Amino acid sequence: MVSQRRALLALVLVSSLLEFTFGKVVLNHDTQESERWCRWNACIRKCCPERQLLANKTCAESSEHEFTFKSYDGLREITDATVVYHVLHSNSCRSAGRFKLSPDYDEADEFYVQRNGTLLKPKDDVMPRVSYQFYCLENFLFSDRVELSAIVCYNDGDLEATADKQNACYVDGMDSKSAIWCLLLFIGNIFAEPCPDYLSVNITDGAPLDHDRLLKDGIVYDQKNYYRSGGAIFGCVCNLRRCLRKCCGKNEVFVNDTCVESPGRAISFPVYNLTQEQANASAGLFVVYGGRCLNTHDSIRADGARLYLQTDGSVYYVEDDYTNIYSVENYCIDIVDGVMSGFTCEEKESGEETFIKGNVRKCCASDQVMIGKTKTCEKSRELFKSTFLPALKSKTSVQNLVHKELNCGKNYKRLIISDFRVDDDGSFYWDDTEYAGIKFYCIDLFTIDSAENELRALVCVGNEEIVDSTNIPVAAEFHIRGIVNKQLPAAFK
Question: Is residue 204 in a domain?
Fold first, then answer.
């Protein structure tokens, strides 16, 4: 109740400074990054701190470029009232992926900031509304202009799943109080997963118990310790059991920067009290698999250090005179090049923006490759490990894969490109200069004209003259979604 009074008082104080002018957007940057402002009032997120903008994917000081925007009810600009927004400054995404909207190039990216702080995208069939937790606004500095746009979060490459979550509570013109109450009704299962996805296990087939509880492998999950995503139910096992995190899969070890199968090898880890080994102490630890870190952290290989797995599932890190304790969400251990080692999650340096390291969109699932002219996926775990991953490293340093088939609009075709690169933020470049966002491309292994298993890309291309990807007129004017170009690049020849 106190927070409510303070927020309302702040709103009254800000409103008293407006001198009864209308049609203005007033921004309160002095929020101390606290979401308490958003309980009863409209909030937005700004990607960079106040008086900064984005230049070359980095926040930079700029006092000459004002951060402002128009406010709307649906598609109607609000000109008869003053709208106050409380601003949180953050570009991080709880989910794995993000992309920049480009309304000048793709009409589906056209957006309108609503009175309640949501982002309306009326021409986007997948994500028409985005709540403030899942986007940030910013001025983007280019060589010839400054452009206001937004970075939008999505959930592990599943745009539809994110859209279902975000659209549950928001409609055009809904006031912020009603929207927040709706949000609170759904927050347990929708917005605030009670654990990171890499510390959860699939319990969809768990036995239902009373009071909406689920039983799986002898563990009872109550509503506070499971969540729904993509039609499945995931349980936060590490909230209920002591866990250790293994970098690779159950029967895999880490060799030459890749997880490889090690059949018949029993993999176990000694457990310590600091550096004193404890007998039979690992029996009570639940093993979760994978080495991912939060978007705000980097995964750092623990070369030259000793890692001691503790009885509570944490790791005691010793390197020369430096020691530290890492909880289960901030490390993984495994057999790395024949010895027990692992990786730790270290917070990014303050100058590094969390969206710089992005995702690579893979056309097929993780254990599949696209090895036919029909552009269809076929299962081949061996090719994925032996050919796809090494080829990917030659194109980009980004190794976080988003698995999603490329579906272009009805006026677009999918074309194959061989000469390309992927930048550190997951942006796709061809012909050295042209760009496509993660929504409009995917990469995988292809077999084309007897060229076996080469890394290629599919890109959405639209042109009435183009019949198929094997017969493109060299002088054709064509459009890649998000790009307009007058000359066919060498990659298409």
Answer: yes
Mean pLDDT to the nearest integer, 140-155: 85
Q: In 457-476, which positions are buried (b, 16+ CB within 10 angstroms) versus exposed (e)? A: bbbbbbbeebeebeebeeee
- DSSP sequence for 52-83: EEEETTEEEE-SSS------EETTEE--SS-E
Same domain, 225 and 324: no
Strand 434-436: give its sheet, edge to edge.
Answer: 420-422, 428-430, 434-436
Shared-domain flag, residues 149 and 50? yes
From CA 2, how far away is CA 352, in angstroms rounded? 36
Phi-psi region at 116: left, alpha or beta (left = phi > 0; alpha = psi -120 to 50): alpha
Burial of 490 (0-12, 13-18, 19+ CB in 10 A): exposed
Q: Which residue from 441, 446, 443 is spatially nearest to 372, judged by alpha carbons?
A: 446
Note whether residue 192 is domain-resident: no
Q: Enter the tokens of residue 33.
A: 């990054």
- pTM metric for this prediction: 0.38
Range of the domain at 61: 2-186
Contacts of 18 (CB under 8 A, 6+ apart): 24, 26, 82
CA angle 115, 119, 122 (to 5 degrees): 105
Number of domains in the chain: 4
Q: 483 near 437, Cβ under 8 Å?
A: no
151-172: pLDDT as tens digits: 988 654 344 444 444 444 444 4
Q: CB within 8 A of 324, min separation 6: which ones? A: 316, 317
Residues 234, 252, single domain; the answer is: no
Q: Give bridge partners of residue 406 from the DSSP assignment.
A: none
Note the pLDDT of residue 53. Answer: 92
**Same domain assignment for residues 386 and 482:** yes
In the block, tokens 């199968």 appear at: 261
